[in-house]
Amino acid sequence: MRRVLSRAPIGLLCVAVLGAVLTVLPPGTAGAATATVTVAPDADATVAQATPTTGMGSDPTLQVDQSPVLESYLHFTLGGVTG
């Protein structure tokens, strides 16, 4: 069964998960402060196994499926993050 998800909820989920991970990670050095960083995806793609070099264009959804094989990717540009 094909799952079709809107991009907005996926982006919000990624922001929430990344924010939670960055908040609960232990500091790298003693006394280092933790911070919450909010990021949003700046690019996305859905790729079909049958046509891996063909983009889906401006399709407003991200898709994941086992048959035919479809995978979706999100790209984040991180800045101001150290450690």
What labels describe this entry?
83 residues, 4-stranded antiparallel beta sheet, 22% helix
Tally of alpha and pi helices: 1
Given the helix and strand composition, which structural class is it? alpha+beta
Strand line-up across the major sheet: 1-3-4-2
Rg, alpha carbons: 16 Å
**Strand portion:** 25-35%
Could you list the spans in which at least 5 consecutive residues all have pLDDT below 50? Answer: none
The helix content, as a percent range, equals: 10-25%
Integer average pLDDT: 74
What gap, in angstroms, lies between the N and C termini? 41 Å
Largest sheet: 4 strands, antiparallel
Shape: elongated
Please tally the β strands and state the result: 4
Could you state the order of secondary-structure elements as H and E? EHEEE
Overview of the molecule:
- By secondary structure, this protein is α+β, with helices and mostly antiparallel strands.
- 22% of the residues lie in helices and 28% in strands.
- The protein is built from 1 helix and 4 strands; from the N terminus they run E-H-E-E-E.
- The chain has one helix spanning 7-24, and strands spanning 3-6, 43-48, 61-66, 69-75.
- The chain has a 4-stranded antiparallel beta sheet with strand order 1-3-4-2.
- The mean pLDDT is 74.
Write the layout of secondary structure elements.
Elements: E1 3-6, H1 7-24, E2 43-48, E3 61-66, E4 69-75
Antiparallel strand pairs: 1-3, 2-4, 3-4
